[in-house]
Amino acid sequence: MAKRELQEINAGSMADIAFLLLIFFLVTTTMDKDTAFIRSIPKKVIVKDPVPVEERNILSIKANNQNQLMVRGEIFSDPNKISEFILKFYRTNERDNDPTNNFPMYSTATMSMIDAQLDKFDQQIEDAEKIGASNEMIEFFESSLKEWEKKKASLKLLGGDELREINGQAHVRIEVQQATEYSIFAKIQTEAEEALYELRNDRSMQLWGIPYSVLKRKVAQEKDKALDEKAKLDLLEILYPTKIVEVTPKK
After folding, report:
1. Long-range residue pairs from 198-202, CB within 8 A, at least 24 positions apart, any chain
2. What is the DSSP letter of 246?
3. Phi–psi pair at 227, nearest 5 degrees
4. β 69-71/74-76 pair status
5. What digits encode the pLDDT tens for the residues 16-54?
6. 24 FRET partner, CA 20 to 30 A, in 8, 70, 77, 217?
7. What pLDDT score was predicted for residue 42?
């Protein structure tokens, strides 16, 4: 009896089917997106005698291992209102300083004061170079000079007689414990970002009628060509600086 020959399986279309299935899964599958925040990490500075910071200049936000929030020593039940408190922290004394409240005071810089600071740092750079000072010291003076040059350009752009700035020590202090859920930490960061965005956007609309996001996008896209927009961003960042301190998590 003759053996029957088995028919070969036609696998020519298997590759096409596998490819279609791969496309299907790529289109229909959702992936969780990690929440993260990009920060410029400052250089480590050793301070022998740290300057004490006034209580009014600290907006402390804490989260314990039970994910409970505390803002300035008081239990904070609604994390969605953290941004409102940060706005209050920046705005309370923005127009007129009131020493009776517990919020940061503002200082004013006139054009003559700014020019005096520019002259001072110019001279310090020159003197440091003459005596062969360390590169770190010269870089510090040059960095300070650039900051005052930025303030001068900002005051010209702003118009008026003075530039009001929040106290240099004022900052938002975030302190969480190691057992705190990352989502709580991310929520605090998000609220801080929202508050800063609102502050800068409101002033941008007030001064130029342009949303803050439009300025940022144009600078990111055109870079060196968007000089006017870059100057406006510099002004907004001087008026409402990002001052967020993250304390090492505790156990």
Report:
1. 198/83, 198/87, 199/87, 199/90, 199/91, 199/239, 199/240, 200/236, 200/237, 200/239, 200/240
2. E
3. -70, -40
4. antiparallel
5. 777 777 777 777 766 555 555 555 544 554 555 567 889
6. 8
7. 47
